[in-house]
């Protein structure tokens, strides 16, 4: 397809009996690898032409290297947009599909979702379909497959997807026996390319907002994961306090006499554990808050201030919003665990700075702490919901696996804090994702099998 664009710009005609192709001499690459490992940028300039064409090619998306490679593509596009000589706006996102397709495979749908997720919501207006191996007839089955897959793209005045037809045989050697067929194929592709370039003249380029939006998306996903962990921690704290309350009630006589006694309670603690390589290879954690700030996350940064969860050198995720220097990147994460522990009444009084013999003030203090924990839980659950809502506003595809793996938990907690409408919003997102279960299963398999 790229060669066809370049030959069109060069004004190559069929009767010229020549065809120009881009060559990439990387003979050490095995045939199992995609033709482009990360991204390739082609720049094409003609002195006699007013058009300067730049093509960013990402055919590696969704190949057998999986999500790991996809992350490298994201980082490469990010670097390209940040570079002074890089790409700062995009005229079109082209999705190439065989015209004979009657359904998109899970892999294809994942690829298209992933590509579109790199850009702002309005990039759909600049997204077009290029149907390869086409005939003179509209590719009805392929268009139905695109519609069923809910691919977001530009539409015409009849509210139908904008598409262009090509038959990729221009490079085939001329054969008198198939002269008429080859001429029809050539003319079809020439018309398709003419219409495509006319379309480019009519649309406004989009600023490459991926720099901001993708980083914000990663930030929000990290926040949701972190907030879930903190809500779970709040629940463990509440359970511990309730057990303490019960112990005081059961030992009222000892408390009245200010006698020391011992009771057992299940307490929580944090421990550093090795990361499951099936999930991720590295995580960024705060050593002050003892929290996982970007997990799964930031495998590529050498300077932690570059991580997407950092803003103005401070973390946007951990409880105290600590400086990036208080964070570490390694193959371990904090995990909350519980154990049975014996505690004395004297230890409890010291912990709560209460030396009064009557248990009433201490019980009241515990009750106040429980109330504060409930308020904190409500705040954290609402923050997590707000993160999901913000994600819905900035991305084309809200149903990312990062969000879906937390939805059931958030729905349950929203119902607990009496927010049924918010819970229903998340259930609707989940239902929409389940309707697209194919790409999700594809992505789930990648996360389980490829991150090694």
UniProtKB/TrEMBL annotation:
Domain AIG1-type G: 51-171
InterPro entries referenced in this protein's UniProt entry, alphabetically: G_AIG1, P-loop_NTPase
Residue ranges that the Swiss-Prot or TrEMBL entry lists as coiled coil: 217-258
Entry keywords, A to Z: Coiled coil, Nucleotide-binding
GO molecular function, one term: GTP binding
Pfam families the record matches: AIG1
Matching SUPFAM superfamilies: P-loop containing nucleoside triphosphate hydrolases (SSF52540)
The keyword Nucleotide-binding belongs to this UniProt entry's keyword annotation: yes
Entry's family note: Belongs to the TRAFAC class TrmE-Era-EngA-EngB-Septin-like GTPase superfamily. AIG1/Toc34/Toc159-like paraseptin GTPase family. IAN subfamily.
Protein name: AIG1-type G domain-containing protein
Taxonomic path: Eukaryota, Metazoa, Chordata, Craniata, Vertebrata
């Amino acid at each position: 397809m790229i060669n066809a664009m370049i030959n069109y710009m060069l004004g190559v005609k069929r009767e010229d009996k020549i065809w120009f192709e881009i060559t990439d001499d990387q003979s050490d690459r095995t045939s199992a690898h995609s033709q482009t490992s990360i991204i390739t940028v082609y720049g094409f300039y003609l002195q006699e032409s007013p058009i300067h064409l730049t093509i960013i090619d990402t055919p590696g998306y969704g190949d057998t290297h999986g999500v790991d490679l996809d992350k490298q593509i994201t980082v490469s596009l990010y670097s390209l947009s940040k570079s002074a000589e890089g790409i700062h706006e995009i005229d079109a996102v082209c999705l190439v599909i065989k015209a004979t397709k009657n359904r998109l495979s899970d892999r294809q749908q994942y690829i298209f979702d992933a590509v579109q997720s790199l850009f702002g919501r309005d990039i759909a207006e600049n997204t077009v379909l290029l149907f390869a191996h086409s005939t003179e007839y509209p590719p009805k089955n392929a268009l139905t497959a695109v519609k069923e897959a809910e691919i977001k793209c530009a539409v015409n005045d009849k509210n139908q997807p904008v598409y262009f037809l090509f038959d990729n045989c221009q490079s085939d050697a001329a054969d008198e026996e198939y002269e008429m067929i080859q001429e029809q194929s050539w003319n079809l592709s020439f018309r398709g390319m003419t219409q495509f370039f006319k379309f480019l003249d009519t649309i406004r380029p989009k600023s490459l907002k991926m720099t901001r939006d993708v980083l914000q998306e990663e930030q929000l996903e990290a926040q949701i994961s972190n907030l879930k962990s903190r809500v779970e921690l709040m629940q463990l704290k509440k359970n511990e306090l309730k057990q303490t309350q019960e112990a005081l009630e059961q030992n009222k006589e000892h408390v009245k006499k200010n006698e020391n006694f011992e009771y057992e309670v299940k307490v929580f603690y944090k421990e550093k554990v090795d990361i499951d390589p099936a999930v991720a290879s590295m995580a960024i954690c705060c050593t002050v808050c003892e929290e996982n700030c970007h997990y799964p996350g930031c495998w590529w940064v050498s300077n932690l201030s570059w991580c997407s969860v950092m803003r103005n050198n401070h973390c946007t995720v951990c409880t105290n919003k600590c400086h990036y220097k208080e964070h570490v990147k390694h193959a371990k994460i904090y995990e909350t665990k519980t154990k049975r522990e014996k505690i004395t009444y004297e230890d409890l009084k010291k912990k709560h700075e209460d030396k009064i013999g009557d248990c009433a003030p201490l019980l009241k203090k515990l009750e106040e702490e429980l109330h504060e924990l409930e308020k904190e839980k409500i705040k954290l659950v609402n923050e997590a919901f707000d993160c999901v809502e913000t994600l819905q506003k900035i991305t084309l595809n809200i149903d990312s696996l990062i969000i879906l793996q937390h939805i059931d938990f958030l729905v349950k907690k929203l119902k607990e804090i009496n927010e049924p409408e918010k819970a229903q919003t998340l259930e609707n997102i989940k239902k929409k994702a389940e309707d697209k279960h194919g790409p999700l299963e594809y992505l789930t398999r990648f996360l389980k099998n490829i991150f090694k």
